[in-house]
């Protein structure tokens, strides 16, 4: 679906008034009737211009590119099979990039692909997302087509379409607008690819704006299993040493799904064949070219098809031909009439493409003289006519004509275009371009400010910063600049800094604010710049002392207003980073008071989150931290990044304290909010997804976990991607997925990263243990322990895994003692010293480590495994069952077969329901040795999803929960929660329940919170009533298999 674009400059055309179409000539197919030489009439005023004057059959012939086309087709084949791919096609100007991509598009369409093509323009560094808007415009116009509904359903994409003047979405300040747009593009492609494979072509990337380059990198990194193929073309001869595309290409080529295709010059035989085809179809001189003439063309063309065609058209037998391609193109232009030459010069100032009406007004010619001139130009194949305008047959031609203009002529024409586009409501970025080229600084300032605002709203912060900076550069040279801009210079400077920060350049943002601070005399401006400087320095990881000082000064001089609330919130954040916990807490409390009094909702929510994190880390009450974060999530702040941050931290604290049901509900809400607002791939949108995954991994809903992990890429190229990918290993290793091996191979390059090493190598160790290779597991453990800080609580879990390996190896003594000592030290000290608290999961892993130490030393004490089993009873289904497995073995060794069988059967039921194949196979081997009949032999062992070979094949729909009985209110409770509820119903206090169940009072409290959340009640009395209605008694829970 190659889009047609209108750029006549009218208000209803579009914001992007020069979205250019496919190149034509030997590099592209521009006429659908080439074979017969028929022409498509295009109405223009009162007369008819013919799109094609001669037969264009040679364009359909691809010569000398079979190897390169085969590589591109390979990427297409992979996309068809569900493996996303990217191809980068490079070559000199005129070498045939568009031609080979056109062939690929034709092939893709025949195979049922949706094809989208967007072209960058030489003005592209000022017009954000021009190729994206170019591609989507035509696709979205077809409401019944495969792409239209997917585009119009996403507000961030609709804003790129003509006629949509909506501003940025509410709550998407700063870089969120870009994150929303990127996420929307990815979701749109994924949605369309679910029905038909997609080929998306970005042409002329050497002209792409920064945001388009960033989008291409994002899509390349995020696309994994979608049926999507991206292709980008670029000129190699334009890539000077400092060209911004160079580092992008270098980064992309390192990624596994990227194929790089360089088009070399054609060989002499291929050139001869190509020239023969051109000659055969009337593209050359009147007589056939042969002998010395043919040799001359081949030698002069240097393997470049476009150069060869121009030489052929100029007449190969001429005694003297121009020495360069540009000279040759201009020699072609000189054969035109004076009027036609003037029209071509005007068109060159407009750019690669120009609308008919705009060209008519810019030339000042009447309809008849203009049409005669255009007919002459089109017949000479210098311009091609479309439905509403004209396109230079090749960008090189437009560049040659433009570069040949005299300086005064160029200035005059740019001024004329600026005036005409202003009348038509043209794109502000294009207006700024013409005003600057026409030396109209007032017009350039006004248009640049408007272009900056538009780019910021579209989610193109780099371009917004560029436009604002351009306005600031000419500010002092423009009388009444503030009136023209509509704002004070300081506001434009602050907007420029905000755009730089949103684009990720926090250092530039901080420096710009520093400069503005030095110039400021107004106390309010000094306070505002101080607050912003502190904020940017924190995000940049800059001078923390400067960040504290700047925020303190802002607090000291800001009036009682929302500005003071924001300054206090930023100051509290800076103090917290410097570990000034008491002062940070006091400052955050004051920020909350001022925010509530002044209506600064963003500062209010930010202060609540900061207070909660301070309370969690340095305070004495997790409940207070939860209360603060709950308040933060109850009302929108006006900034979605703050809202998502509040939800993530609230869910995280619940998760870390064992309240899995509550954490699941909050993460689900956060993931939904991120998805509905297009922020799935924002920082906290991603964090919420992986936390949602961990919650379901722990609560036993592995089908839901694997559905979430479907978006965690396997072929990772960055640390951020590798961290997200690592989480998917928990369920993959637990279920024995073959895909875990491939994921681990990709992740192995990132094992030096502490978090990736802990998760990925930790799961590699567990995989090795299930495969009967404890030595490999121990090697992984040793590497992880050496990389972790001594106080890191992660040491506890990995020590338990290492002790499992040592026990299987039969080793005791110092290795065992050292690991257990490391685990105990981390538990007692923690990252915050003696005040640090260990959550239920940490307590459980420490109990597991203690039990494994006993197993390694041959101690037959079932009680240590009972403690480990009970510790995981807060809701960690899999780990509770794994502890129960060891408890059953210990009971067997002490001769208590009845108790061993009961524990073993409970573990078997859980393993079967989870689809934990390695665990289930191990349990069945234990049962076979003990002579226990398999309790799962006659029932399904797991949901169908648990048996799929790949997480991506998991069926949609509500997954079956672990061993739950449908239709009963208690079916959501785990075995331990039922036991606790039964005692609650008997009127026991938490201390008494803990004594009866051999668990701590704090663990009982966590269980009670989970029970209330799962039952949807608010008090112990209501929970007890439900228990009695369901007939639950203390003994009734004993037979549960959850």
TrEMBL record:
Region: Disordered; residue ranges are 1-32
Q: Provide the Gene Ontology terms for cellular component.
A: cytoplasm
SMART domains from the xrefs?
HTH_LUXR
Give start-end positions of Low complexity composition bias.
22-32
Q: Which InterPro entries match?
A: AAA_16, P-loop_NTPase, Sig_transdc_resp-reg_C-effctor, TPR-like_helical_dom_sf, Tscrpt_reg_LuxR_C, WH-like_DNA-bd_sf
Tell me if ATP-binding is a UniProt keyword of this record. yes
Q: Which PROSITE patterns match?
A: HTH_LUXR_1, HTH_LUXR_2
| HTH luxR-type domain span | 966-1031
Keyword list, A-Z: ATP-binding, Nucleotide-binding
The answer to whether keyword Transport applies is no
Give any Pfam family that matches: AAA_16
Q: Which organism is it from?
A: Microbispora catharanthi
By what name is this protein known?
AAA family ATPase
Q: GO MF terms on file?
A: adenylate cyclase activity; ATP binding; DNA binding
Basic and acidic residues: which segments have biased composition? 12-21
Q: Which GO terms describe its biological process?
A: regulation of DNA-templated transcription
């Amino acid at each position: 679906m190659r889009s047609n674009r209108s750029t006549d400059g009218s208000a209803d055309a579009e914001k992007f008034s020069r979205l250019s179409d496919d190149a034509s000539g030997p590099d592209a197919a521009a006429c659908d009737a080439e074979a017969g030489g028929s022409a498509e009439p295009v109405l223009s005023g009162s007369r008819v211009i013919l799109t094609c004057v001669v037969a264009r059959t040679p364009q359909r012939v691809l010569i000398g590119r079979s190897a390169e086309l085969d590589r591109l087709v390979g990427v297409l084949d992979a996309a068809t099979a569900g493996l996303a791919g990217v191809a980068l096609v490079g070559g000199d100007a005129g070498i045939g990039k568009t031609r080979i991509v056109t062939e690929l598009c034709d092939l893709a369409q025949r195979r049922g692909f949706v094809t989208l093509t967007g072209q960058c323009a030489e003005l592209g560094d000022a017009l954000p997302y021009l190729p994206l808007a170019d591609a989507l415009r035509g696709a979205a116009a077809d409401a019944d087509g495969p792409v239209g509904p997917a585009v119009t359903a996403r507000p961030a994409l609709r804003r790129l379409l003509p006629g949509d003047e909506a501003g940025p979405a509410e709550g998407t300040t700063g870089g969120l607008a870009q994150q929303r747009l990127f996420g929307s593009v990815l979701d749109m492609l994924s949605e369309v690819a679910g029905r038909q494979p997609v080929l998306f072509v970005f042409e002329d990337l050497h002209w792409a704006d920064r945001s388009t380059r960033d989008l291409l990198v994002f899509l390349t990194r995020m696309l994994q299993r979608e049926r999507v193929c991206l292709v980008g073309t670029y000129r190699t001869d334009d890539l000077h040493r400092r060209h911004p595309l160079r580092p992008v290409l270098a980064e992309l080529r390192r990624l596994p799904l990227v194929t790089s295709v360089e088009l070399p010059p054609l060989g002499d035989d291929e050139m001869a064949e190509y020239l023969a085809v051109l000659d055969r179809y009337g593209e050359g001189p009147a007589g056939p070219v042969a002998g010395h003439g043919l040799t001359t063309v081949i030698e002069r063309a240097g393997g470049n098809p476009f150069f060869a065609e121009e030489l052929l058209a100029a007449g190969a037998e001429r005694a003297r031909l121009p020495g360069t391609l540009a000279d040759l193109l201009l020699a072609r232009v000189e054969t035109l009439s004076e009027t036609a030459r003037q029209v071509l010069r005007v068109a060159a100032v407009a750019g690669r493409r120009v609308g008919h009406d705009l060209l008519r007004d810019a030339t000042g010619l009447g309809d008849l003289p203009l049409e005669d001139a255009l007919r002459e130009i089109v017949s000479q194949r210098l311009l091609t006519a479309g439905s509403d305008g004209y396109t230079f047959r090749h960008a090189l031609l437009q560049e040659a004509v433009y570069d040949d203009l005299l300086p005064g002529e160029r200035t005059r024409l740019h001024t004329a275009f600026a005036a005409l586009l202003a009348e038509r409501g043209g794109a502000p970025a294009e207006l700024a371009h013409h005003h600057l080229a026409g030396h109209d600084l007032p017009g350039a300032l006004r248009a640049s400010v408007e272009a900056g605002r538009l780019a910021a709203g579209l989610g193109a912060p780099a371009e917004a910063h560029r436009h604002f900076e351009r306005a600031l550069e000419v500010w002092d040279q423009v009388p009444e600049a503030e009136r023209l801009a509509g704002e004070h210079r300081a506001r434009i400077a602050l907007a420029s800094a905000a755009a730089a920060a949103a684009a990720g350049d926090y250092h530039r943002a901080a420096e710009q604010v520093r400069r503005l601070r030095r110039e400021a005399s107004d106390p309010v401006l000094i306070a505002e710049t101080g607050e912003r400087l502190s904020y940017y320095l924190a995000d940049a990881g800059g001078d923390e002392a400067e960040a504290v000082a700047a925020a303190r000064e802002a607090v000291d001089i800001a009036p009682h207003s929302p500005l003071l609330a924001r300054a206090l919130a930023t100051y509290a954040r800076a103090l917290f980073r410097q570990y000034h916990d008491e002062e940070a807490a006091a400052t955050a409390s004051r920020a909350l008071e001022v925010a509530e009094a002044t209506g600064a909702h963003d500062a209010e929510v930010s202060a609540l989150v900061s207070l909660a994190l301070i309370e969690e880390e340095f305070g004495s009450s997790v409940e207070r931290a939860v209360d603060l974060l709950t308040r933060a999530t109850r009302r929108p702040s006006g900034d979605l990044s703050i809202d998502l941050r509040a939800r993530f931290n609230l869910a995280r604290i619940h998760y870390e304290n064992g309240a899995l049901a509550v954490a699941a509900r909050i993460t689900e809400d956060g993931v939904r909010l991120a998805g509905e607002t297009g922020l799935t791939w924002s920082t906290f949108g991603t964090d919420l997804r992986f936390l949602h995954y961990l919650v379901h991994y722990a609560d036993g809903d592995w089908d839901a976990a694997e559905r979430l992990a479907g978006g965690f890429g396997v072929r990772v190229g960055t640390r951020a991607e590798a961290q997200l990918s690592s989480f998917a290993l928990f369920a993959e290793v637990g279920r024995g997925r073959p895909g875990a091996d491939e994921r681990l191979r990709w992740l192995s390059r990132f094992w030096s990263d502490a978090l990736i090493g802990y998760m990925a190598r930790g799961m590699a160790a567990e995989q090795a243990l299930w495969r009967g290779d404890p030595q490999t597991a121990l090697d992984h453990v040793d590497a992880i322990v050496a990389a972790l800080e001594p106080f890191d609580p992660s040491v506890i879990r990995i020590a338990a895994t290492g002790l499992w390996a040592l026990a299987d190896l039969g080793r005791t003594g110092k290795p065992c003692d050292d690991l257990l000592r490391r685990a105990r030290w981390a538990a007692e000290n923690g990252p915050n010293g003696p005040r640090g608290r260990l959550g239920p999961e940490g307590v459980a892993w420490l109990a597991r480590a203690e039990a494994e130490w006993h197993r390694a030393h041959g101690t037959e004490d079932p009680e240590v495994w009972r403690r480990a089993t009970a510790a995981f009873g807060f809701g960690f289904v899999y780990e509770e069952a794994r502890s129960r497995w060891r408890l059953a073995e210990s009971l067997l060794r002490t001769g208590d077969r009845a108790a061993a069988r009961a524990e073993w059967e409970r573990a078997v039921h859980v393993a079967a329901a989870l689809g934990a194949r390695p665990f289930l196979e191990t349990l069945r081997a234990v049962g076979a040795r003990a002579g226990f009949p398999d309790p799962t032999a006659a029932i399904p062992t797991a949901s169908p999803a648990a048996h799929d070979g790949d997480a991506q094949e998991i069926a949609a729909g509500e997954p079956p929960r672990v061993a739950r009985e449908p239709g009963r209110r208690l079916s959501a409770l785990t075995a331990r929660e039922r036991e606790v509820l039964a005692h609650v119903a008997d009127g026991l206090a938490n201390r008494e329940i803990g004594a009866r169940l051999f668990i701590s009072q704090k663990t009982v409290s966590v269980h009670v919170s989970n029970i209330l959340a799962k039952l949807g009640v608010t008090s112990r009395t209501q929970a007890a009533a439900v228990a009695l209605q369901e007939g639950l008694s203390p003994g009734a829970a004993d037979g549960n298999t959850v």
